[in-house]
Design goal:
Radius of gyration: 17 Å
Distance between the termini: 34 Å
Strand content: 15-25%
Number of helices: 6
Shape: globular
Oligomer: single chain
Length: 185
Amino acid sequence: MKIILSGGTGYIGGEILKHALAHPEVAEVVVLSRRDVPDLRANPKVKMVILADFNTYNKEDVEAMEGAHACIWAIGSYTGSVDVDINYPLAFARAFAPTLSSSSSSSSSSPMYQKDHFRYVHLGGALTERDQTKPLWYFTNGRRIRGSAEGQMEEFSRTTPNWDTYTAKPGWVASPGYASGVLGW
């Protein structure tokens, strides 16, 4: 299986990358990044795509991602940035979706990946709000913008053949060993 990962140099994205690289069914991880990470590039499962601007994908960027079965989008802002939270994932989707065909995800020998749909996993926040008119008491801007992003990516899924959007809302992520050291588990 080939996956695309944005945010692979961040806290949550880094943990996702670590697990993806360790998974035996993952043959390749295309990491979208602003900067080169030589340690990652040295891994034979990793293909780095360096983007100066996540709103723009050139032909080589798209070709590097072509044939992917899934994308995990782990880039976001804490305070709510229209560019980061909404425009970046939509730019990716618009650039990548034309590469999909009815056989785009069926190249893997695993029956788990035979479905002819690309899977896009959008990491949102635990408190995001899709209802843009709902009164919110705290973190109003960020919650609304991230909620709008989730809704727009789901709408993209409804209007784009062979594209499935899923939203994950991690509320708290602990580094390895954190729970045992702090909580006594």
